[in-house]
# Entry
Amino acid sequence: MSSPGTFVNFPTQLVPMLQQNFLDRYLEEGLDSYLAYRREAVQDTISARIGSSLTLTRKGRKTPIEDAADPTVINSNLDNGMTPSTFSIEQYSFYMKEYHDTVDTDLVGELAGIADQLLANSRNNGVQAAQSMERIARNALFSAYLGGNTRILSDVAPTPTTVHVDDTRGFSTVLVNGVVTPISSANPLLVTEYNDSGSLGMDSQVLSVTGVALDSPNTSTAPKGISGTLTFTSTGTTPVAGDSLIAANAPKIFRPLGKNNTALLNGADVLTMSLIDDVRAYLLDNAVPPMPDGTYHCILDNTSMRQLRADQDFKILFAGREETQEFRGGDIIRLFGVTFIPTTEAPQQNASTTVKQRIRRPIVMGGECLLQGNFEGLDIWLNREGVNPIGEVMLIDNVAQVVRPPLDREQRNISQTWFWIGDFSVPTDLTATTDIVPTASNALFKRAAVIEIAG
# Structure
């Protein structure tokens, strides 16, 4: 394999324009251009030759012992009165998928500025790869932390055993002995219906969900949501359209005034310091470790940041302090042990017939809430003798860029391609029960929390 920058198979007149490592450098700059969600991911290498997926297991803790041993049984037998105990486990999976794109440069059509065109294409490939991986990471994160929270729709009338809902994510599986298992009559998911419509006849009721059927076409209004029908065992009261459904193991979503679903938000429901502090307390109660810098990270869009600066508590806290970074730079960097990271990639939900407000979703994250698995096979493939006899292959931040010289009859079209093989996974935290952490919640995912606000 030739080293990057030699370009031994390219036209002689083109070689002087392709200075060593320039294309490598431009890809790297593109990948480093801007990232928010993906930056929070802990990276891991997924071994080659394992098939299309890899399931990993994490151990939980053993329950603390609070009662003294019975002196009468300590020496009663060979076990000294003890029964062996073990820890619980939880599993998460990586599914190896390939993401890629390519661009061609016509040497004749771009002869006057061929060097610039090659560099521009390389940089754009890098930026595209970065943005693609950013959104893959973001979608994995929000799919997990928005799951198990939905509302009953009115387009299909609820029955004593079925309801049509806006988002089925988080309702199709339960953990059985730490293993993700599809719901069924033998493994139901307990879901609470809250009387947000005012028509239920009671404050709430618990449904035992045993099946999920996805809609085609999908009509969900949530970002990457999947609408569908939930089937549950018969109850005494037929569910009501407009009510919220929250799974027993659903991640916590913070909304102003404790509202239960997205459709209940109005224009006054904006981001406040109180909401941020509530999320921080929630993460601390669940013993979620901070990021390596010692703080939790809040990723949000700039409009949400503007709402926070307008909060009265914020104004009182910084009254008369015009020399502070928050006022001089217009950025809130760190408050309450939370570091704020603005991004333009934050998911947006436009107003609709059911959700009257534009919805924004800041997310506050703790350590190891998102994992990135990179396929080890890329390194093995790149290092094999003879894999690169024609083109040039560069592996930058686990993303491969392949530059192929002209192979057409007129030798005029150079191909530049990027691809990445891997996956993002959001590990569960169900083993952190109240027996282990007395202040813990029942949420399946505990290491982050979404805030839903209008704006």
In short: The chain is about 20% helix and 30% strand. Helices lie at 22-31, 114-145, 273-285, 302-310, 312-317, 325-328, 377-383. The first strand starts at residue 42 and ends at 46.
